[in-house]
Amino acid sequence: MDVPSPGYPFILTVTPTRLELRETGPSAAGSIYVDFAGGTAEHRRRFGGGRGQPLARAIGLKGGATPSVLDATAGLGRDAFVLACLGCKVHLLERSPVAGALLQDGLKRASTDPEIGAMVRERMTLSFGDALAFMHQIGELARPEVIYLDPMYPPRSKSAMVKKEMRAFHALVGKDEDAPALLETALKCARKRVVVKRPRLADAIAGPKPSMSIEGKNTRFDVYLIPANS
Ligand SMILES: C[S@@+](CC[C@H](N)C(=O)[O-])C[C@H]1O[C@@H](n2cnc3c(N)ncnc32)[C@H](O)[C@@H]1O
Questions:
Q1: pLDDT at residue number 6
Q2: Which of the residues 84, 92, 97, 175 has an alpha carbon 20 to 30 A from that of 132?
Q3: How far apart are CA 57 and CA 42, in angstroms?
Q4: Which atom of ligand 1 approaches the CA of 130 most closely?
């Protein structure tokens, strides 16, 4: 049934099976929800290239290593799920209450799935709040080996090519203006490396130069290695 729009750009809806974000208006995107057990997440789990894919190489999953990862900009958890499937323990942080609620709902459903449930329960944890504050107050013993940052960047100029759902998610969480501060703080907090996801041709985040970059088809991962004993 179509619900008349009362002037809100989004409606957060509880359906019998999941929590969904629905955009309103004539050119609305399809519903946004988190589904780790099916759809693109399942496809990426089965056919995404395993430890050879650019994200895994950037995080440092070489030779059987499975570092602990703080995903400080968790969004809808897609990258975090890939890393968890590859063996990493991932702590997800999200500051948007709506994105956080969608993510929590997705994790809850995934945790009871017969195929991925045990892995999700063991390897994925979620906290709500701002990553800057979180990293500032983290204790020495809790410092993660790797911090992963994927701040929102402006939609590409060929905006017709940007998927409607991405555009809607962008409108919901807004621009991440604090990316340089996140990087600066992450570099003090991570034990081994900080990895930043960028569009392939975009500038690096303002701050120190990356130690190396790993390119995917549309994406680049800038890797900042932390000197030993820091
Ligand atoms: C591009 S999305 C991340 C997408 C995610 N990598 C995925 O695979 O679904 C960026 C997310 O980071 C969140 N974010 C940005 N800055 C943050 C901060 N300082 N603390 C916590 N979350 C932040 C935004 O709310 C947004 O949901």
A1: 60
A2: 84
A3: 20
A4: 20
SS3 31: coil
Q: Which residue's alpha carbon is nearest to atom 1 within ligand 1? A: 152
What pLDDT score was predicted for residue 198? 96
Residue 218 Cα, ligand 1 centroid: separation in angstroms?
Answer: 18
Ligand 1 pocket, residue 202 CB under 6 Å: no
Q: Which pLDDT tens digit goes with each residue over 183-225?
A: 999 999 999 999 999 999 999 999 999 999 999 989 999 999 9
User: Which of 39-43, 94-98, 108-112, 162-166 shows the lowest mean pLDDT across its residues?
Assistant: 162-166
Tell me yes or no: is domain 34-225 CATH 3.30.420.240: no
Ligand 1 centre to CA of 123 (Å) is 19
The predicted pLDDT at position 63 comes to 86
Query: To which H or E segment does residue 80 belong?
Result: helix 78-85
Residue 225 tokens, joined: 């290695």
How many A from CA of 149 to the centre of ligand 1? 8
Which sequence spans correspond to the domains of the chain? Answer: 34-225
- Residue 161, pLDDT score: 44
- Give the closest residue (by CA) to ligand 1 atom 13: 73
Using CB atoms within 10 Å of the CB of residue 159, give its burial: 0 to 12 exposed, 13 to 18 middle, 19+ buried. Answer: exposed
Centroid of ligand 1 to alpha carbon of 141 (angstroms): 24
Backbone angles phi, psi at 36, to 5 degrees: -80, -25
**0.90 cut: is pTM over it?**
yes
From 40, 53, 88, 95, give the residue whose CB has the most ligand 1 atoms within 8 Å, as the site to mutate: 95
Mean of all residue pLDDT scores within the chain: 91
